[in-house]
Amino acid sequence: MNAIRIDGKAIAEFLRARVARDVALLQAKWNVTPGLAVVLVGDDPASSVYVKMKARHAQAAGLKSRQCLLPSNVSEAALLELVEELNDDESIDGILIQLPLPGHVDRWRVLEAINPAKDVDGFHPYNVGRLATGLPALAPCTPLGVMHLIKTVVSDLSGLDIVVIGRSNIVGKPLALLLGDAGCTVTGAQLQTRNLPDLCRRADIVVAAAGCPELVRGDWLKPGAIVIDVGINRAQDPTGTVKIVGDVAFAEASKRASYISPVPGGVGPMTVAYLLANTVNAAVSRRGLSLVMSPDAGQVWPASFRETTREVELQQAT
Ligand code: GUN
């Protein structure tokens, strides 16, 4: 079997176009331009690239975009002051503090200072609690993107066995909540989990978000499984060239899986698309407007992609 690639790049492009359409609608109907502020502390090259990409896509979708770049030695007090200013700024609907923050800053104190209504990362304990209780909430962007990719290839998730490897606040924990709400039996695994390969072999869907290059091998998978790779790792190939690789050994896994998301071009672009969608949703909710505009996972994928996919028939473990 050769797995079909889940083309996150194309799906995200489609989503961003929908966000752009929604922004145009908001402007025409209510003269509202949603605004996103992205805060970067320090000059970590990877974080700088992500922040620039987020700002570029925000602008392309018609959002107002503000980048706040602060030196790595900025005081926690100054950062908290900036968050207060953004909370009070009526033209800003979404605030994202790019992580990680330098060690001298208390990450949680800063994240908790964000107005939960503008918390487009979904990291504020208020939103985490609402998500956990099933109340409407701003949810983290990467898990929303993963849910969307899964729903693109399998319409009914109820009853499926899913292993999520990794328990981060950004991906693993919120994703387990979303999958549980969709009726899945979710096993939250981590690197220390005993018999991880066996556990994965029993799963209909494996999501790898452990930050460990090529952790998931081909023979860890049940034939026909769906594999979603959230990892973004820098690794050197035998010639010394640095490459970006995921948490899944892609070539091996492609021989066993029915669908697989690649790295790059899988989950990454979806995270950015959902950041834009969350910002538009925050703009709508904050003003009490009633435009139904959230990208509805499962219903929105490019026709060209849908035509190349088939409903998955999950095979029994062999
Ligand atoms: N650093 C790595 N991923 C993320 C993310 O999704 N949001 C923020 N704010 N920082 C990150």
Q: What is the overall number of helices?
A: 11
**Average pLDDT reading:** 91
Low-confidence stretches: 293-318
How far the N terminus sits from the C terminus, by CA atoms, comes to 14 Å
Query: What string, H for helix and E for strand, traces the elements in order?
Result: EHEHEHEHHHEHEHEEEEHEHH
Q: Record the strand order, biggest sheet.
A: 1-11-8-7-5-6
Total strands: the figure is 11
**Any idea what the CATH architecture of the domain at 141-267 is?**
3-Layer(aba) Sandwich
What is the CATH top level name of the domain at 141-267?
A: Alpha Beta
Sheet of most strands:
6 strands, parallel
**Proportion in helices:** 40-55%
Shape: globular
The CATH topology label of the domain at 141-267 is Rossmann fold
Task: Outline the structure in words.
There is one protein chain. The longest helix is centred in the first third of the chain and has 23 residues. Helix 2 crosses helix 10, helix 6 packs across helix 7 and helix 6 crosses helix 10. Helices cover 41% and strands 15% of the residues. The chain is an alpha/beta fold and 318 residues long. It is globular and about 55 Å long. Among the domains are: 84 residues, 3-Layer(aba) Sandwich (Rossmann fold), CATH 3.40.50; 127 residues, NAD(P)-binding Rossmann-like Domain (Rossmann fold). The site of guanine has 9 residues, from strand 4 and helix 6.
Summarize the structure.
By secondary structure, this protein is α/β, with parallel strands linked by helices. Helices cover 41% and strands 15% of the residues.
